[in-house]
Structures are given as C-alpha cells and as structure tokens.
Amino acid sequence: MAKPTFRFTHYDLKEQRAGAIIEVTLSAVNNVRLMTPGNFQRFKEALDFKYVGGVAKKSPIRLAIPESGHWHLIVDMEGHHGLADSAVKMIAAPATARAPKAS
C-alpha cells in the first residue's frame, strides 16, 4: 500500500453536524484538508481523494462542515517547506433546534 510521501498531522473530528465551524491555527503555510473517512483512507493510500479546504496562507483558517457525519482534518506539507505546528478547535456548532421529521 502506497503512503503519502510528505508529513501530515491527522485530527479525527468524529461525528460533526453540517454547518459546524472548525478553526485551524497554523505556524506556517500548509494545506488544510477536511475529508470523509473514505477519502481519508484514499489519502493514506496515495489515491485520488476529495476534500474541502486547500492551501492555508493565513492563520487561523475556518472551515464549515459541509454535511453531518464523521470527518477527518489533515494538515500537510505537500508543496511546502515543512509541516506546520497546528491546533484545531470547534468555534461554532449549528443550532440544535430543528423541526421534527415527519414519520
């Protein structure tokens, strides 16, 4: 199994609600990628994968969770000089009040 040839930091964000905001603080320019478990597996195997995010040229960077589910956040140095120190925190969770679903 191939692995990425660059260093990365992995954060398992567990289950998140759509609309939750994740704030990532970096010590240097790096890539910040938010992805589903399936795409994280593809990332680890150096296959094509999909993600939300990209090159973070400023810090902190904020990303919104696009849909409810299990999410992984990767900070990686691909194309940059080194792996940045990073920290991740939730800064806003969506309102939990929702209309009940019709059954």
UniProtKB/TrEMBL annotation:
InterPro entries reported in the protein's UniProt record: DUF1883 (IPR015073), DUF1883-like_sf (IPR036488)
Pfam families linked to this entry: DUF1883
Domain spans labelled DUF1883: 6-94
Protein name as it appears in the record: DUF1883 domain-containing protein
Organism: Ciceribacter selenitireducens ATCC BAA-1503
